[in-house]
Here is the input.
Amino acid sequence: SDKNNINSVYSGAIEHIEIGERIEIKADAFRQCSCLESVTIPAETIVALSDTFYSCRRMGYVAIPKTTSVVGQYAFADCSSLRSASLPKITTFGQYCLTNCFSIRRVNLSSEAKEIDYGAFSNCYNLSSLKIPSGVTIIPGAMLVNNRVLCSVKFEGNIRALGTRAFAGCSGAAFYDFASCLTVPALSNANAFEGI
Here is the structure.
């Protein structure tokens, strides 16, 4: 790691990290930092969010700067204590990026969001509601699978397709708002709402 980059160098008993300005955080940088509770990331920091905070099981909150537009695969996967995440300018959510975040209650998706990948918010047991921005037109497979506390999902745009098991196991969801859809979404498989 050089002075302007953070690679896969942090591990072990580190609890708090404050990152300097104009630093680039690489993928895997904080992977499996089991004691990490918080990270302070300055506004101009470039963050490559792919496995970056994977399995940081004590981290309760993270704020991602506006310079970052992509949350890559497994970026926050298995962050079981994560309660909230500020993701102000994210346009793309990679596969399983927030899977197994058992404590998270709210995810505010940016109005600029365009793409959500497979299993992005799966097994987020305490996520109570989700608003899908108008730029997202395809709901991927297993996007919210097993989110039992989920009460409502609002789609702000025209959803063209629902992926396999997109909402399977969301047994608490009582309200799916498709009012903004101009057409009936195509189902890639009849089990998009399996177990509801």
